[in-house]
């Protein structure tokens, strides 16, 4: 069997490219639905004819419900992960999820050209699609995290980089559909066909992966892994045992024939202690319980939860309601795609990337949770921007530039703090408990997303 030093070469870095595509594919569903918010609002916010009279349009709070129904499946399937992973094969989970996501995107694209007179029906179909597409996305994401964990660590960074650029990809796709100056329906159809093609490429990439020698080597090695014995440690313990045996012999020669050393210790204790120590060296250390691991990482768990509570409470539910000062101009249709979605996704990715160079404050510092909590200031700042249909709060920051600067700082600090929290947590425990720490952090990440989405409802009413 090949050792790590004999591992085959990743020719053309093809496995790295595939995992970048897989990372991109995991977050395409959420980002494409989120970026298409203007399309859905146009279809929902229309006046209805009832008995020959026009009724006032109904407020669906689409962005709030979309955010909530996108994040709840992630929280739910975090609980179900162990059940699913033990009973359903990895190939079935990943392939099945991608096929179902592809079919749901095809349904969404088909609805673009399908007239649905009852907006309640369209809203219900869209919400159900969002729920199921994100449920399959949660299974897909968890399964691929386990798969990439079998490879060298740099491939995990490539996978997460793909995830980080998924939002930027969706925002650019929306900008291209607007720039094409096609009709609204044609532009929306082209927009939703894009993730269909992206998901299909992701599926084909996954099917190709097991046939590459580099991936095969690490996947097989992980399945057939057996811990190697620590020969050096065993040798030292055997020498210690041998020395104690000599000491025992000297004890007998010095007249301690009753089986005890000068201090009264039974003569066989040296053998017993050496035997116990040797056996413990042969047996891997026992992992800490989930509760014990949580006690060590609870600060980072709080940080990742709080970061996402703040971020999802206003993005995108409230940020998409901000309007430009240049209403009636061509810039109006580009304002939200650029200043809200493109700025957020680029700066979120930049914030995550900066952590590979700078990690401040350090994990032991009390300043880090203070920095995380201080991000709460972005909630009132965004709520005081130029939001349409605001009832209670004034627009203290009506300028486009002010909103843009707030969004840049808001998203950059979000990506930075999230990445630091997720990378610090495994460093606070022993390597044997890093997997448990990662699973706990994933749960609290999902919890923060869900709580933030729920908080967006009362915040939107307060505006």
TrEMBL record:
Membrane topology: Multi-pass membrane protein
GO terms for biological process, alphabetical: adenine transport; guanine transport; hypoxanthine transport; thymine transport
Keywords: Membrane, Transmembrane, Transmembrane helix, Transport
Gene Ontology molecular-function annotations: uridine transmembrane transporter activity
Statement: the UniProt record of this protein carries the keyword Transmembrane: yes
KW Transmembrane helix (keyword) present: yes
Chief location of this protein within or outside the cell: membrane
Subcellular location: Basolateral cell membrane
Transmembrane segments: 12-40, 60-84, 96-116, 122-148, 155-176, 188-209, 297-319, 331-347, 367-389, 401-425, 437-457
This protein's name: Equilibrative nucleoside transporter 2
């Amino acid at each position: 069997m090949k050792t790590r030093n004999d591992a085959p070469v990743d020719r053309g870095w093809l496995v790295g490219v595939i995992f970048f595509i897989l990372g991109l594919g995991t977050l395409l569903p959420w980002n494409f639905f989120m970026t298409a918010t203007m399309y859905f609002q146009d279809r929902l916010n229309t006046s209805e004819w009832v008995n020959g009279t026009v009724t006032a349009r109904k407020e669906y709070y689409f962005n709030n419900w979309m955010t909530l129904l996108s994040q709840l499946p992630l929280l739910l399937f975090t609980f179900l992960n162990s059940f699913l992973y033990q009973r359903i094969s990895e190939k079935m989970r990943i392939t099945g999820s991608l096929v179902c996501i592809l079919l749901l995107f095809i349904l969404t694209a088909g609805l673009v050209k399908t007239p649905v007179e009852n907006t309640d029906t369209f809203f219900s179909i869209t919400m159900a699609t969002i729920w199921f597409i994100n449920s399959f996305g949660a299974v897909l994401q968890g399964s691929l995290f386990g798969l990439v964990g079998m490879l060298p660590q740099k491939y995990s960074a490539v996978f997460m980089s793909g995830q980080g650029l998924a939002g930027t990809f969706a925002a650019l796709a929306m900008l291209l559909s607007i720039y094409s100056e096609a009709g609204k329906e044609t532009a929306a159809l082209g927009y939703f066909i894009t993730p269909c093609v992206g998901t299909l490429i992701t599926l084909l990439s996954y099917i190709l992966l097991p046939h590459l020698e580099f991936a095969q080597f690490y996947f097989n090695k992980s399945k057939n892994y057996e811990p190697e014995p620590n020969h050096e440690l065993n040798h030292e313990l055997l020498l210690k045992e041998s020395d104690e045996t000599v000491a025992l012999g000297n004890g007998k020669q010095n007249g301690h024939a009753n089986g005890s050393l000068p201090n009264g210790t039974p003569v066989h204790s040296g053998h017993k202690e050496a035997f116990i120590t040797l056996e413990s060296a042969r047996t891997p250390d026992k992992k800490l319980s989930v509760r014990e691991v949580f006690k060590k990482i609870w600060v980072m768990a709080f940080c990742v939860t709080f970061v996402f509570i703040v971020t999802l409470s206003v993005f995108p539910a409230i940020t998409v309601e901000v309007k430009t000062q240049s209403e009636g101009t061509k810039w109006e249709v580009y304002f939200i795609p650029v200043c809200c979605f493109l700025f957020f996704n680029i700066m979120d990715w930049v914030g995550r990337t900066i952590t590979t160079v700078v990690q401040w404050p350090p994990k032991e510092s009390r300043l880090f949770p203070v920095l995380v909590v201080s991000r709460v200031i972005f909630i009132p700042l965004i709520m005081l921007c130029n939001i349409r249909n605001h009832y209670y709060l004034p627009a203290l920051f009506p300028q486009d530039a002010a909103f843009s600067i707030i969004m840049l700082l808001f998203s950059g600090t979000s990506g930075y703090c999230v990445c630091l929290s997720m990378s610090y947590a495994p460093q606070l425990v022993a390597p044997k408990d890093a997997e448990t720490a990662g699973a706990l952090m994933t749960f609290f990440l999902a919890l923060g997303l869900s709580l933030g989405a729920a908080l967006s409802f009362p915040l939107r009413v307060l505006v």
